[in-house]
Amino acid sequence: MSDISRHHLNPPNRVLLGPGPSNVHPRVQGAMLAPLVGHLDPYFLTVMEDTMHLLRGLFQTKNELTFPISGTGSAGMEAGLCNFLEPGDVAVIGVNGFFGERMVDVAQRCGAEVVRVAAEWGRIVEPEAIEAALKAQRRVKLLALVHAETSTGVLQPLVEASQLAKQYEALFLVDTVTSLGGHEVAVDEWGIDICYSGSQKCLSCPPGLAPFTVNQRALAGLGARARKVQSLYLDLGLLSSYWPTGSFYHHTAPICMIYALHEALALAAEEGLEARFQRHLRHGSALRAGLEAMGLRLHAQEGYRLNTLTSVRIPPGVDDVRVRQRLLHEFGIEIGGGLGSLKGQIWRIGLMGYSSTQENVLLLLSALEKLLVAEGWSVEAGAGVTAAAQALREK
Ligand SMILES: Cc1ncc(COP(=O)(O)O)c(C=O)c1O
């Protein structure tokens, strides 16, 4: 006879301090248990409308078409690119990490001719390099940048790039998967035409939705497409008939996920955007102070470091995988390793949404100290925690 009990789910409780997902707020978890209604139920339509309203607040936009795409952050990326790029269009894309590289891949799959503006993984894409790339083309359809490069911990400045996009008559697309809800994202003020994010990072929802917003300038161009958008699922023309009225069947919305996002957005609105950004700044700064006090080197360019994701160089002689495994198994803490060319070279520590707390900063630093000492790295006892506590007192 088979052992039925082994099929029972029993996931461990983890402290999620990796590059995402972050820990889910209990109110968000609770929202997912609310009774299921039909996706065309009048009650659900009010939830959809409310979710759009709350998302506009977070993106700081008046854009009518602001809604969660059903799918993870990558679905947001695909939607942002496949609706606006057709074969032969030129797209200029900043590449200073894994996710810029992924945008290149997606744009090429749309048939676009991609001009990469490359920068070292860990540095910003400089506006001068962006301008040179725009200038060298006869016509650029779209300029795309990653605001918060999760693979490196770099915060990309956007305002100058946005002005350049306007000057060269290109649409400006921004990936805010690791910034929305943790760093300011002012879509209207910064002149962003198309913007997407993910539910599982600074919003502290489970993965599965991609908040998305697009302005009229970008939408107006859709009518001029020579051919249909190749993806039915991500076709904004079809999706805009579904959101917010629900009057047209496009797909069955993931209702429980939208409950969860609604609750997460309500929590963000209750906290207040400025207070939320300050919380991420306070904890990000304390973590950086603690890591440096332990003799570790931060990887991302100074002055452009994310508060939501810190990249730190793995010290010589220390085993990347062993430390991460011990953190997980002995302390229940998840952090991330390096991606792509940074594999084995950095750790990525997320302090996003509900996971961005002073308790988590101090817990991680003390656990890391113990494990680094066991690896032979010399750390003055308590140095990391002391420096972080000092930084927390000052803020
Ligand atoms: C900057 C960035 N863009 C896109 C993605 C893709 O999101 P997802 O993994 O939710 O599909 C991620 C995921 O980590 C990301 O960090």
Task: Offer a few descriptive terms.
395 residues; 13 helices; 2 domains; 7-stranded mixed β-sheet; alpha/beta; Aspartate Aminotransferase, domain 1; 40% helix; 3-stranded antiparallel β-sheet; binds pyridoxal-5'-phosphate; Aspartate Aminotransferase, domain 2
Structure summary:
By secondary structure, the protein is of the alpha/beta class. The chain is built from 13 helices and 14 strands. The strands form four sheets. A seven-stranded mixed sheet has the order 2-10-9-8-5-3-4, sandwiched between helices. A three-stranded antiparallel sheet has the order 11-14-13, covered by helices on one side. The chain has a two-stranded parallel ribbon with strand order 1-12.
Structural class: alpha/beta
The number of helical segments is: 13
Low-confidence stretches: none
Which shape, going by the Cα principal axes? globular
Name the CATH homologous superfamily of the largest domain: Type I PLP-dependent aspartate aminotransferase-like (Major domain)
Radius of gyration: 22 Å
Bound molecules: pyridoxal-5'-phosphate
CATH fold-level name of the largest domain: Aspartate Aminotransferase, domain 2
Proportion in helices: 25-40%
**How much of the sequence is in beta strands?**
5-15%
Number of strand segments: 14
Name the CATH class of the largest domain.
Answer: Alpha Beta
Read across the widest sheet, the strand sequence of neighbours is 2-10-9-8-5-3-4
H/E topology pattern: EHHEHEHEHEEEHEEEHHHHEHEEEHH
Q: How many domains is the backbone divided into?
A: 2
CATH architecture of the largest domain: 3-Layer(aba) Sandwich
Largest sheet: 7 strands, mixed
Q: End-to-end span in angstroms?
A: 60 Å
Mean of residue pLDDT values: 96
